[in-house]
């Protein structure tokens, strides 16, 4: 293999600088070619100037190339990292707002809830277009996806194109951070084992410096003096779910809570409610729409990037902590690497889940082989919860691929955060009739306008 070529599609996003920082963390990848691709040329050129300025100043060997042409970006590439957000904040506002106006309760809305399905309708056709081009132009390339909703996005790509796809998410760090704060151990030596689906994984073991601290962690959840740590994390919902199901969720309550219809009570709880609403970061619960602060933060970040590109502000680049470049290094240099969490096909890793479904589990990269690390027998009730969401994702994927509105209504209705089947239909109709959404859906010939 010649010089490794890594392509980031959606390179104008905030992920890119962190991913570039990972080249600095992993020494054997600094003689690579990094191809930046984005349909937003203004954002693309800003990122290009930042990274070129940085590599020249620091004498870093990574070659930076930028293009708005997808086929050009994919030509002879080894890895494709997808970090897209189709429609940007303009579409996201509609994705969030419509379900809220029909009485749905949400916290983030990028994975589950009615908004999770709506976001999937925007992102998955775009990802399938990218994946099909990868299959045609760079069939040996590995796709590494960061775009949510992660699980159905990866499942759709595997079903439709059979290209090599893995999904990455840093959510597993949540419980490492919580264990560190509860027990006083250095986070750098904490490792976890867990399994589930993206944003709903369940922790089966926690170790510190190779020794299990799992039981110590579980006991610490009920120490009165640790209550403030649980509120700040937050992990009050996580603790409640552990008490019922006998296994602790891996992520903070911000994501975990959305997978359960209990959120309707939690959001009204005088303690849980304010914490969950504050942790959202996206939703204005009074006005039932996207927070104005989200737009303001994005504009401030854009201006900061422009200043860095123009040399008016110091360029600061830190590693992302994600595994994308670690995986690329393991494949390129044919070495064995273990990662704590990867979204890949189940292949029997979690008992009771279809082997073809995408799950989030520890994995081993050994040369070109990416395989689950270990077997996981989760409590039957937990497996049932995971399967309910996976089956909903399957209906959603079929609806998107077949452009079948009835299946998409069914997918929304199957979600525990949807108030009723009737509202599921109304949510979808309002979404596909929205002029902003129609513009973005039609980009990839996914026009579903017209009443059901």
Summarize the structure in short.
Helices cover 48% and strands 16% of the residues.
CATH architecture of the domain at 5-94 and 109-169 and 312-332: 3-Layer(aba) Sandwich
Strand content: 15-25%
Query: Which CATH class of the domain at 5-94 and 109-169 and 312-332 is shown?
Result: Alpha Beta
CATH superfamily of the domain at 5-94 and 109-169 and 312-332: NAD(P)-binding Rossmann-like Domain
Report what the structure shows:
A 6-stranded parallel sheet has the order 3-2-1-4-5-6, with helices on both faces. Strands 7-8-9 form a 3-stranded antiparallel sheet. α17 packs across α18 (421-433). The protein is globular and about 55 Å long. Among the domains are: 5-94 and 109-169 and 312-332, 3-Layer(aba) Sandwich (Rossmann fold), CATH 3.40.50.720; 173-280, no CATH class. It is of the alpha/beta class and 452 residues long. It has helices at 15-25, 41-58, 70-74, 88-101, 113-137, 150-161, 173-183, 214-220, 227-232, 236-245, 253-256, 263-266, 272-280, 292-309, 324-332, 380-402, 405-414, 421-433, 435-441, and strands spanning 5-9, 33-37, 63-67, 79-82, 142-145, 164-167, 190-197, 200-208, 211-212, 283-284, 289-290, 336-345, 358-366, 369-372. The chain contains 19 helices and 14 strands. The mean pLDDT is 96.
For this entry, give a set of tags.
452 residues; alpha/beta; Rossmann fold; six-stranded parallel beta sheet; three-stranded antiparallel beta sheet; 19 helices; 14 strands; 48% helix; 16% strand
């Amino acid at each position: 293999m010649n010089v490794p070529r890594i392509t980031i599609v959606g390179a104008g996003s905030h992920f890119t600088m962190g991913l570039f920082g990972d080249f600095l963390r992993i020494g054997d990848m600094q003689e690579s070619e990094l191809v930046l691709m984005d349909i937003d040329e203004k954002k693309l050129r800003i990122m290009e100037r930042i990274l070129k300025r940085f590599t020249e100043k620091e004498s870093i060997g990574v070659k930076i190339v930028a293009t708005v042409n997808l086929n050009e970006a994919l030509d002879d590439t080894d890895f494709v990292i997808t970090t897209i957000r189709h429609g940007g904040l303009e579409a996201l506002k509609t994705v969030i707002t419509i379900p809220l106006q029909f009485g749905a309760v949400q916290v983030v809305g990028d994975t589950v809830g009615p908004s999770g399905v709506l976001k999937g309708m925007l992102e998955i056709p775009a990802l399938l277009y990218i994946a099909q081009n990868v299959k045609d132009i760079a069939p040996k390339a590995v796709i590494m996806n960061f775009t949510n909703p992660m699980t159905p996005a990866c499942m759709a790509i595997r079903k439709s194109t059979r290209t090599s796809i893995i999904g990455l998410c840093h959510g597993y760090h949540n419980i490492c951070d919580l264990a560190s704060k509860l027990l006083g151990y250095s986070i750098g030596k904490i490792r976890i084992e867990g399994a589930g689906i993206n944003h709903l994984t369940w922790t089966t073991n926690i170790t510190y410096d190779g020794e299990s601290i799992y039981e110590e962690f579980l006991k610490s959840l009920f120490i009165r003096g640790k209550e403030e740590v649980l509120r700040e994390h937050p992990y009050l919902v996580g603790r409640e779910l552990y008490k019922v199901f006998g296994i602790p969720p891996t992520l903070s309550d911000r994501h975990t809570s959305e997978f359960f219809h209990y959120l309707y009570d939690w959001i009204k709880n005088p303690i849980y409610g304010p914490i969950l609403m504050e942790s959202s970061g996206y939703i204005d619960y009074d006005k039932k729409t996207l927070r104005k602060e989200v737009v303001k933060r994005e504009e401030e970040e854009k201006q900061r990037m422009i200043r860095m590109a123009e040399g008016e502000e110091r360029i600061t680049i830190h590693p992302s902590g994600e595994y994308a470049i670690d995986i690329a290094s393991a494949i390129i240099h044919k070495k064995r690497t273990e990662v704590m969490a990867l979204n890949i096909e189940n292949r029997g890793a979690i008992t009771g889940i279809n082997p073809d479904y995408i799950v989030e589990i520890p994995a081993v990269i050994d040369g070109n082989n990416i395989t689950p690390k270990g077997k996981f027998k989760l409590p039957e009730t937990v497996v049932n919860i995971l399967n309910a969401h996976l089956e909903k994702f399957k209906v959603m994927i079929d609806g998107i691929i077949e452009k079948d509105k009835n299946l998409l209504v069914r997918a929304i209705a199957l979600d525990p955060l949807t108030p009723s089947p009737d509202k599921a239909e109304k949510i979808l109709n309002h979404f596909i009739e929205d002029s902003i959404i129609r513009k973005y859906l039609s980009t990839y010939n996914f026009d579903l306008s017209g009443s059901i």
